[in-house]
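Predict structure. Input: SGNH hydrolase-type esterase domain-containing protein, 673 residues.
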Amino acid sequence: MRIAHLVAVQAVGLAAVEAYVMPYSHAGNASAGGLTSQNRQKKRSVGKRDDDPSDFSWVKRWAAVGDSYTAGIGSGKPLGNPIMDTPENTNWYCSRYDTAWPVIVNDALGSSVEDFYFVGCSGDRTGGIYNQIKALEGDLDLVMMTAGGNDLCLAKLIEKCVLVPSGDSSCDNVIKTAQANMESILKDNMKQLMAALDEKMNDDGIVIYNGYAQFFNTESEACANQAWTYATLWPGNSGLTISRRQIFNDFVVQINNIIRSVVEETAANTAYKWKIGYSNWDPWVYDGVQGQMCDPDGTGDYPDKDQPDLQFFKPDTQVSGDDADADPKRRWEEYGPLAEKRRAAIADVERRNLETELYNSLLFNSVNPRAEVKHRLDRRGMPSPPKCPGDTDDDIQPKSIGLPDWVGKNFHPNELGHYTIASFALQTLVDTRAAVLDMEPPSCEIADKFTCWQTTGSKQYAAAKQLNEDYKDFCDKQVKRPTGATDGWKFSHKYHEGTPDETEFTVKVAAPSTNFDRKECNDKMWAVINNCDGNDPQNPLNFKFGGEFVHGDYTYTVSPQKKKRHWPVPKETGGACKGWWHGWWSSYVMWGYGWAGHDHGQQTLLSDLKKTTGCIGGGVTLWRFKYFDEPDENGMEWQADFNTPIWVRQRCFNNNKVQRAAGGFTGGCGGND
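Output follows.
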């Protein structure tokens, strides 16, 4: 499971147990008879049976191993029941569900599947997953897996940093230590899983290793007070700041990088006769759909009508009865189904000292964590126990406090998330099968997708002249690939911030990128700006609403930011002007809309005031300019105040000479100057 919500589930006590092998027929029922952990003596080769990588009929025997992301906790209906659980049937104990991605994949593989081993177990670390693999009968055509997130001992960290934030210093110190030791703990353990799989795979078989997904949207601070945070064990989630969410997202990026490196090293190992592929569904969650928690466009409810593509479970905020309209904080503190457990949990966690426990753990406190891991691997011949707080010397599994799945499923993929994982896993399977067959993977010609924001009902627009200057600066000078980006990446830049013409330009890349093409960027940005809004008789001033151009792996976006502007779009510039005589000087107030919308009047109105010295006859003083948060009752978007020499109103302002020079119009200028 993804780091952030993996450990959050551990913090609320998701059951974590050793997995036993559970065989299934294609129909999903338990096969007759038990399995042994001994491999068959003779491996049969899958062979090159056809020339269609998307034909899955070669898959006769396959297994899904891993943690709660594989088990699918909460996704659909639970498999089995506590009465029927045995050492050979651990469906209930491991929180396996019927809409987990392995079940979806199994249905897609088709009727050729003879044996399906669904053994992923919620809470399993790599030590438990190693045992899952060792217990499998060999001669496997396919293995799919999600593994590694539970090895980081981060349950307590999430508890203190997110669920019960109790101080930045303690949290940040533990984060730093966890980051420093991540590769030491994870990579060697993952490589042990690959070695264990080698004993079980057919020659020309395939292993698909699924990555994790970044859980948090980091665009807005509007998250901590959303209703769902009050439905957890620890309400009032003030720890979900943008910076802290980004830290946990970075953990996901790091673990995915480690998984990718293990996959690459495994693929390059000529001793392994099977193929391996890395399935990365992360970009879909933040780029393909609005799939993350804390998305600014969501209401914060769960389920959320404004965020139907959310990929993860959150605490349910739907309450019926007399309390349905109550303040969410009071509603969940006083009436929520976890009220008693929440109060007990808060009292309990306040007695703990996270930092002491974690720093006393073996790997985090070791002078040389890598050497400690190697020592344990040499001694055990299996993944090293991460020695999380509370573990005994040989524990490979965390302890459970036995909370039910309706609590434990939070911070895990929901049904949509599991369909996403299954889709990416199947596509990776097709690509990897093509490598087995020594052929190019099939591909679809991706059609460009062009969306104009005006057609979606947007009322946000900006001046064409500025946008057509800004996109060139953005593409030619500003865009740069973020340091360390290995998968998808995004770069954004805002122009004219705090003005009506404020606009954000964005380039997003959905896959490992080739060199960024600045000429293509210029072409696509020009198209977004000028092909969406042009020759419209209802828009004679040619304001631009922006849009989005998806071209292959690249998405080019132009998004005006000001939500409250003069509406309908003005067909001509407008404004008002007043000037008063004060003896030795005159003072003026000018208002406007549809012009001077990007630079606080500096290069528009003020520069033209100074250029018309022949009209004014002297300097402009005490210049003040402000934009309104929203148009006033007359539709005005800004106001300028300034002083001039006396007796210039008629020849400079009442005839609109200065206003027209600045690109605007006020219909004259009242007053007594």
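The two ends are 73 Å apart (CA to CA).
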